[in-house]
Request: fold
Amino acid sequence: MEIAYALEHPVKLKLNLHVQGFTVLLGESGVGKTSLLKALAGLIPATGQPFAGLRAEERPVGYLPQHFALFPHLRAWQNVAFPLAYLPSEARKRKALEYLEQMGIAELAERYPKQMSGGQQQRVALARALAREPQILLLDEPTSALDMATREEVFGGVLEQLKALKIPTLVATHDQWLAQRANWVAVLTKAGLAQQGTSEEVFARPSTLEVARLVGFRNFWPGRVVEVNGAWLQVQTSMGLLTAPSPDWAKVGEEVWLGIRSEEVFSLDGPHNRVRGEVWHLRSQGLRVRGLFKVGEVALDFLLPRYKQAQLGLAEGQRLEVALEPHFLHLMRS
Reply:
């Protein structure tokens, strides 16, 4: 589904967005993510396609707000049945129970929202959104109330169910965990839509430094392109001459930024991009170890599984040589 929308209030925003399967609109607070969802649902004034000119109740949209907006005085099945008022009462309840079954919570049909956990309330709200038989589902920060320990357990199953339904779904979030599991990711900044593509493409090859930070890059350092040779190029940096994949726009003499993800810093093998440095600030993060690898003026943040750290026998102050794998280096413009 192609979305082209413009709105003036509460934020000024104009974008053309491709929704493909489970699509995540990723961005920080205040850039207009929620406003776009509300505009699509017809809840705030905007112009664009699809659904232009239709009142909110006429739009084939299933909208799940951040706090679910369940009716506290209605049971779960009655909340789901709310959009089904056009059906006779018996058919309405039967259909509502089918949607609750689809969300895996049919046994909660007679409970009120206050008798359910946050994850259960979310599934009821999703069942209600599905009861509208939408052409598109809109979800606003669906993991915001979940901590890292329960996110996979509570929302992982819901995510798989949503993908199986094959209804185009647009999710507004700042959650990288959720964006990494999307079919398609669009990154929204204060300047507008900065990049969109598959999850792998956006997380591995961000188009700018701002996008890189939003998708979890911590390592950036400047350089200058000194040679372009087909798919590869050479960049002069404070760490020496480094080989990296060549983007279409790169030219000899251009000032660029190089980046590498923390998880991809450590490789001891390989003939290219060998740099010597010192290990600093090792600290445990659950089953992983984070630290800094200082190469001259550049301090590379790295993140290793615990078993890998044990294999390497890393210790603070240790000096060693590593290879920055060329495939994992990424060139960006500022």
